[in-house]
Amino acid sequence: MKEIILAKIGELVLKGLNRRQFEDKLIKNIKKTIRHLGEFEIKNAQSTITIIPKDDFIDLDEVCEHVGRVFGIVTYSRAAICEEKSLDSILKTAPEYLSEQLSSVKTFKVEARRSDKRFPYKSPEIARETGGAILRAFPHLKVDVHSPELTVTVEVRDYYAYVRGAAIRGAGGIPVGTGGKAVILISGGIDSPVAAYMMAKRGIRLTAVHFASPPYTSERAEQKVVKLLKKVALYSGDMNMYTVPFTEIQETIRKKCPEDYFTLIMRRLMMKISERIARERGCQALITGESLGQVASQTIGALGCTDDAANLPVFRPLIGMDKQEIIDISYKIDTYDISIEPYEDCCTVFTPKHPRTKPVLERIKAAEELGEFEPMIERALENLKVTYINTKDE
Ligand code: ATP
Ligand code: MG
């Protein structure tokens, strides 16, 4: 029996003129994530994308796993193509294809959709007849139209008739690439990979920036960030990661600036450098993993001082979330276990004993003057290291 995958597109975002653009991008993104699994034909009609495997060796479970991570898909399911587009063929296929699921439940119902209006039976007839065929094959079953354990769906579409069981919830969101480009400031912590995932979900294509301070931070700390981004890239698609050499700047902060402002000055310089990287690569916003009140540098006053350093919008998707809520998402996207590996981040190398929770912007700016950071920023930007993050060698 030939099996395919049907993926339903999000309805809300698709209204209006953007629809075509969303659909084209979504199909491109699906093709990209599954192309290493074999050859596929992909069709798009009536808010449903049909993925038809062309090779016999293709493992549909694996395809589903990838499709389940593509933003812009609300639900998806495996389905069997009926040999012919006829009622007889539907009645034969339904009990056969779903026999395992039908054997393990007590109640079911059949829903039928006929988008090919030339098909000689109307939807209620198709549903009734299919229900009858299932009952004959599985006499233990009862029809329950209100809360069935299994809903069997028959769809009669342009080319084929399909039979399928329950649909699985997709990744939701908007196709990556339809929401512009932004720079994610990525550390090795729990929060920033989650922030990256959340903004990719809103259609943003990511570029990653990571600050490293060797020898205070190790090569393994950087490799940890690469591992995290590979997990994120399963959802967001491939991206570039820029590693910024940050040692000279951090040592200068420690030497020349007041201790209680160490962290904030460092955060502001991160924003300035990230903005430069963003603008040079056509990115329109910065993303961080900050959450209000989580640490001293994330009070409302501290965030104001951080914002002041950059002239691009700063997206903080975790701003209103509790740590546990963030951790729950990190489990879901499988970054948690990597994030808790114990390598030093440059943020934790020079932490002040008594950081300011109510900082004064003018004092920070005056302290920054003392550091004369401009030439160091230029040097850091000249010495960026680029790593291409892809998911395929996982
Ligand atoms: P995370 O878990 O993401 O490290 P955090 O709660 O530890 O966040 P901070 O260490 O104060 O918070 O960092 C706040 C944000 O600053 C991070 O979420 C990240 O976006 C950015 N950031 C921190 N360290 C780095 C770094 N070494 N390189 C790039 N961005 C960083
Ligand atoms: Mg951190």
How is this structure best described in words?
It contains 15 helices and 15 strands. With 394 residues, the chain is of the alpha/beta class. Helix 7 (219-236) links the parallel strand 11 (205-212) and strand 12. Helix 3 (87-97) packs across helix 5 (123-137), helix 6 packs parallel to helix 7 and helix 9 (262-280) packs across helix 10. The longest helix has 19 residues, at 262-280. The model has no long low-confidence stretch (mean pLDDT 93). Bound molecules: adenosine-5'-triphosphate (ATP) and magnesium ion. Adenosine-5'-triphosphate (ATP) binds at residues 185-187, 189-192, 209-211, 270, 288-290, 294-295, 297, 345-347.
Short description:
The chain is an alpha/beta fold. 41% of the residues lie in helices and 21% in strands.
Q: How many DSSP helices?
A: 15
Order of helices and strands: EHEEHEHHEHEEEEEHEHEHHEHEHHHHHE
Radius of gyration: 26 Å
**What is the overall shape?**
elongated
Oligomeric description of these chains? single chain
Roughly what percent helix? 40-55%
* N- and C-termini, Cα separation: 31 Å
Average pLDDT over all residues: 93
Number of strands: 15
Supply the helix-strand structural class. Answer: alpha/beta
Biggest beta-sheet profile:
9 strands, mixed
Low-confidence blocks of residues = none
- Strand residue content: 15-25%
Give the names of the bound compounds: adenosine-5'-triphosphate, magnesium ion
Describe the SSE topology.
Blueprint: E1 3-9, H1 19-34, E2 40-45, E3 48-53, H2 60-67, E4 73-81, H3 87-97, H4 99-103, E5 107-114, H5 123-137, E6 142-143, E7 150-156, E8 161-164, E9 168-172, E10 181-185, H6 191-201, E11 205-212, H7 219-236, E12 239-245, H8 247-256, H9 262-280, E13 286-287, H10 300-308, E14 314-315, H11 323-332, H12 336-339, H13 346-349, H14 361-371, H15 374-382, E15 385-389
Parallel strand pairs: 5-6, 5-7, 10-11, 10-13, 11-12, 13-14
Antiparallel strand pairs: 1-3, 1-4, 2-3, 4-8, 4-9, 7-8, 12-15
Helix pairs in contact: 3-5, 6-7, 9-10
